[in-house]
Amino acid sequence: MGAGLRGLPFLPLSDREFPVSNFQFPVSTFQLMKVTIGSRGSQLALWQANWVRKHLAATGCEVEIRIIKTTGDKLANLPLTQSGTKGLFIKEIEEALAAGEVDVAVHSLKDLPTEQPEGLCVAAVAQREDARDVLVSSQAYEELRPAARVGTSSLRRQAQLRHLRSDLDLVPMRGNLDTRLRKLDRGDCDALVLAAAGVHRLGLTSRIRQYFAVEQMCPAVGQGALGVEIRRDDRQMKDLVALLNDPVTHNEVRAERAALHHLGGGCQVPIAAHARLQEGELHLSGVVASVDGSRLLRSAVAGPAQKPECLGQALAEDLLRQGARSILDTAHGIV
């Protein structure tokens, strides 16, 4: 069990039943607070919001969840690359937060743009789940027949999959995780590529055929991590959600998000970055790839864990020196 900010323990995010640790939270500080969490209504989003709710409620405060339908939910049948909207899955939740309709917003960090709206901030990042991508199929990736249909709507995954195997047929696959699994089961595709974190959190690990190594499929920025967003001037809420923060994960995703920011990308372009703390140093790897997979640039840097943004900038600058700008300009034109 890891230790959160101020030495408070927190639970791994793969625990489906949301049990709360035996730690005695400072209830006298928070027991009179009423907190409303804003969340999407998908099964996975509600799992994440309930994880936060259970841990905040352990301090003695009263917590409720308000479900908010986002643009991404309303455009469920439109490919992500055709949506034309930044922050598809968070815009309406952030608007409710800024308006004071909710006090806390819980996001999959990979969905959160690197720049927050005026007055909002990411006040805590919970301990990360497995950041890798996985294959859900009856066969391993190497065993899939030529022209096998692999479902994913992520340009990042599509680019890296095409680089690994150009003979596969990549088909758009939108929908919540359970929806995509149903589409696989009814034969809409032969395999799915998903984030391991979501599959684990919903207790569906038995569906996983294969984990992609980070060297094969570099994860999305922030993949596997939860971001807790609040109003910047809400001091009391900042103190409360700090109990959820994992400094190691927070530093890792700060490095990844800095790289994404300096590359000028978002969650809908083929950019990947993954950081890990090893022996006191932060190791950051990154990928920029063309959508067709014909070009794939890699970089890796390491440095002090206390300067994650500097590390992210160094990675971005190295990828730009290798020619990332032309790849990204082309990708933006396609998107």
General description of the model:
With 335 residues, the protein is an alpha/beta fold. Helix content is 31%, strand content 22%. The protein contains 11 helices and 13 strands. The strands form 3 sheets. Strands 2-1-3-10-4 form a 5-stranded mixed beta sheet, sandwiched between helices. It has a 5-stranded mixed beta sheet with strand order 7-6-8-5-9, sandwiched between helices. Residues 1-24 and 80-85 have low confidence and may be disordered.
Attribute tags:
335 residues; D-Maltodextrin-Binding Protein, domain 2; Double Stranded RNA Binding Domain; 3 domains; 11 helices; 13 strands; 31% helix; disordered N terminus
Q: Can you describe this structure in just a few lines?
A:
Helix 9 packs parallel to helix 10. The model is unreliable at 1-24 and 80-85 (pLDDT under 50).
* Oligomeric form: single chain
CATH homology-level superfamily of the largest domain: Periplasmic binding protein-like II
The neighbouring-strand order within the major sheet is 2-1-3-10-4
Termini, distance in Å?
41 Å
User: Would you identify the CATH architecture of the largest domain?
Assistant: 3-Layer(aba) Sandwich
Residues in helices, as a percent range: 25-40%
Which class best fits the helix and strand makeup? alpha/beta
Low-confidence stretches: 1-24, 80-85
Beta-strand content estimate: 15-25%
DSSP strand count? 13
Would you give the CATH topology of the largest domain? Answer: D-Maltodextrin-Binding Protein, domain 2
Rough outline:
globular
Number of helices: 11
- How confident overall, as mean pLDDT? 87
Question: Could you name the CATH class of the largest domain?
Answer: Alpha Beta
Q: Work out the radius of gyration.
A: 20 Å
> What is the string of helix and strand elements?
HEHEHHEEEEHEHEHEEHHEEEHH
Into how many domains do the coordinates divide? 3
Report on the biggest sheet.
5 strands, mixed
